[in-house]
Amino acid sequence: MDIFIQQLVNGITLGAVYAVVALGYTMVYGIIQLINFAHGELVMIGAMVAFTLIGLLTSLGVPGLPAVVLATLCAMLVCALLGYAMERMAYRPLRGAPRLAPLISAIGVSIILQHLALLVWSRNPLAFPQVVKTESYALGGAAVTNIQIGILAISIFMMGGLAWLVYRTRLGTAMRATSQNPQMAALLGVDANRVIAVTFIIGAALAAVAGVMVGSYYGIAQYTMGSALGLKAFCAAVLGGIGNIPGAMLGGILLGVVEALGAGYIGDLTDNVFGSNYQDVFAFLVLIVVLVFRPSGLLGERIGDRA
Amino acid sequence: MSMLAVRDLEVRYGGILAVKGVSLHVDEGELVCLIGANGAGKSSTLRALSGLAENAKGGVIYQERDIAARPAFERARAGLALVPEGRGIFAQLSVDENLLMGAYMRRDSGINADRDDVFALFPRLRERRSQTGGTLSGGEQQMLALGRALMSRPKLLMLDEPSMGLAPLVVRRIFEVIRDINARGVTVLLVEQNAKAALELATRAYVMESGRITLEGEARALLNDPKVREAYLGESVAP
After folding, report:
1. Domains of chain A: which residue ranges?
2. Kindly report the CA angle at A218 between A213 and A223, in degrees rounded to 5?
3. Pick from A282, A21, A266: which is nearest to A159 by CA?
């Protein structure tokens, strides 16, 4: 039972991060039907930039928490600019091209960003500067750290903020309208290019925060961290129904929980033939099972329902 | 004063020339209709005027400015509204949100008052304001499309087949509202297959046949024109 609660807590925390990253995939897909394979790299760049800055700031004598906040804000800015630049240079010129072209372009951007990070930060992992002391609290036989609580709180705050933006503001209504019927939105005066650019910027800023969170959770950041995380977040988006915002949130949490529970019990279940390093198998297994029964994801619309 | 002047408009769809050199004009305050058979190029003409057609050539002068090269959203912001064929309702947005999208480019404080005006015009929309657009009937969707276009406070309202697929009672209501809108000072360019109703409503009319304007004149005169009566009003004219 203790293991169960512990893994549940771990899973929800990690799942919340997946959800935040998945939102970036799903928002972009919802609006231009592009799977932005470079999105995971934004998470990585966000973590690297923030880690570097935290180190720099604390060495200048800035106290821990303000340094983290300041560094995260800078990372969001850097990623937002990168997100805007990739849309402008790699995807906008391919609007209207066959769907495969921007997809290849996205993979290209992903490789470029990864190698750029390799040049800047080398292949050695950066350690998360120990500026915030980890404290542990007991919760029904399980341990919850202040880092986990922070990650969860920030994730919930960002998901809530995004939901408010998308469902309650003029800009969000225009985003949804453009995603449903871009021509009609244009006829009402919506500049699709601007809406698409804003979508990329928001997704990229979220990715930066996710990068800081996942980096501080594992304690390290490395130029390769984006691809595996990006792939899982992409799975989370597909699991929830790609293009669907509540779906990405649900898919992310679900994936995190399944993965953590799988890692916690796989040893017992298989008589220690498989260890917790097989945890990724669970995430993809769930994805396959869900897609077999609901090809459009948990909350996705059936194909053809698009207006 | 001229609201819209179109000179030698050509629209190409795939390899086919759908509109072959159309010239027409709409003056301020007029209600002009464009009638013709299915496939005559009426919708293509409207799409080109609103900036949706990719392969359009020719001059489009709107309020004394050449807008032929402007993208659709800029034309909309200049007050040129199109209610497209099929109505273009955002199926997953509520009725309220659809109407607010109509006012997307406005910054003034009159938006809520205008929405109440639309609800007064079509009380059904008020009843269904929190339902999504996709759950509305065809007639309600047409009302919503019309109301949404009004929310943008257009100077020139272009309507593509507003009567298509609707029950006669609803059609009558829609046409009443179009007359009303025009009486309030909005210039209207109406494309219709329902030639009789359109000609009775309009001040002037153009008849379009396989991509060209073949007849034009006062709507009343066209209503009595033997060729129009035979081809579009379904009457056989005695020799």
Report:
1. 2-133+159-293
2. 80
3. A21
pTM summary value: 0.91
Helices A100-121 and A39-59: angle between axes, nearest 10 degrees:
20
Count Cβ atoms below 10 Å from residue B102 Cβ, excluding itself: 28
Which of B54, B83, B92 to mutate: most A Cβ within 10 Å? B92
Burial category of B229 from C-beta neighbours within 10 Å (exposed 0-12, middle 13-18, buried 19 and up): middle
Does the predicted interface ipTM exceed a cut of 0.85? Answer: yes
From CA B237, how far away is CA B239, in angstroms rounded?
Answer: 6
Question: Do B76 and A189 make contact, defined as CB atoms within 8 angstroms?
Answer: yes
Taking Cα atoms as reference points, which of B85, B49, B88, B84 lies closest to residue B70? B49
- Which candidate in B50, B54, B89, B90 is best for mutational testing of the A interface (most A CBs within 10 A)? B90
Strands B2-13 and B56-62: antiparallel
Residue A76, SS3?
Answer: helix
Is B91–A186 a contact, with Cβ atoms under 8 angstroms apart?
no
Contact status of B111 with chain A (Cβ, < 8 Å): no
Q: What is the pLDDT of residues A210-264, one digit of tens each?
A: 999 999 899 999 999 999 899 999 999 999 999 999 999 999 999 999 999 888 8
**Could you tell me which residues come within 8 angstroms of residue B44 by beta carbon, excluding any fewer than 6 positions away?**
B11, B13, B18, B19, B53
- CATH code assigned to A2-133+159-293: 1.10.3470
Measured distance CA(B102)–CA(B120) in Å, rounded: 17
Residue range B109-162, pLDDT digits in tens: 999 999 999 999 999 999 999 999 999 999 999 999 999 999 999 999 999 999
Residue A36: half-sphere exposure toward Cβ, Cα within 13 Å: 36
Q: Of A182, A225, A284, A251, which Cα lies nearest the Cα of A44?
A: A225
CA A270 to chain centre: 31
Find residues 58-117 of chain A whose CB sits inside 8 Å of chain B. Answer: none
Please give the angle made by the CA atoms of B198, B200 and B206, to the nearest 5 degrees: 50
| Helix A2-32 vs helix A39-59: crossing angle, to nearest 10 | 120
CB-count burial class (<10 Å; 0-12, 13-18, 19+) for A151: buried
Percent of chain A with pLDDT over 90: 71
